[in-house]
Specification:
By secondary structure, the protein is of the alpha/beta class. Helices cover 27% and strands 24% of the residues. The strands form three sheets. A three-stranded mixed sheet has the order 1-2-3. A three-stranded mixed sheet has the order 4-5-6. The protein has a three-stranded antiparallel sheet with strand order 7-8-9, with no helix packed on it.
């Protein structure tokens, strides 16, 4: 499966002068973990993630005063829409991040996240009480999009 098949093509775009609170509200309203930051003065594309907002708030900074420009990642690692999901996952692992801005014909066309990749790689949509293959005495109990696994996995020989 390719990145273009898994990515979200509806991308939240914000500017560098937004406050972190404004960015967080927009991200929350759209239920996304990252926003593309377009800075017309700098002429580049950046990314702001939920982790950037959490790091700032955790450091005691005021989200009503902190600007996105101070927290945006500008040295973005881009994914090509024609990459395989394995290539995207490897890039995320190497870089230590959970979102990639996707390029198609040289322009940003979407974002692919770890969650998008997992959703594509997980064929099992476990219903409550469904046995989980490979885990002895384990049941899945969850709601769509989440799974709570209880029990112990059988030890490998």
């Amino acid at each position: 499966m390719l990145v273009r098949d898994a990515m979200s093509s509806v991308v939240l775009t914000i500017g560098p002068d937004h406050t972190l609170r404004q960015a967080a509200r927009l991200m929350s309203a759209r239920r996304v973990g990252a926003a593309v930051v377009l800075d017309p003065d700098a002429g580049g594309v950046g990314i702001l993630t939920e982790r950037d907002v959490l790091d700032s708030v955790g450091a005691g900074q005021d989200p009503d005063r902190e600007k996105v420009a101070a927290h945006v990642t500008c040295d973005v690692v881009f994914a090509d829409s024609g990459w395989t999901l394995e290539e995207a996952a490897a890039a995320m692992l190497r870089g230590g991040f959970r979102h990639l801005v996707v390029l198609d014909a040289g322009s940003a066309s979407g974002i692919v996240s770890v969650r998008d990749i997992i959703r594509c790689w997980t064929p099992l949509r476990a219903a409550p009480g469904t046995a989980v293959p490979g885990a002895a005495g384990t049941e899945a109990d969850g709601t769509p999009g989440t799974v709570d696994v209880r029990g112990t996995a059988a030890a490998s020989p």
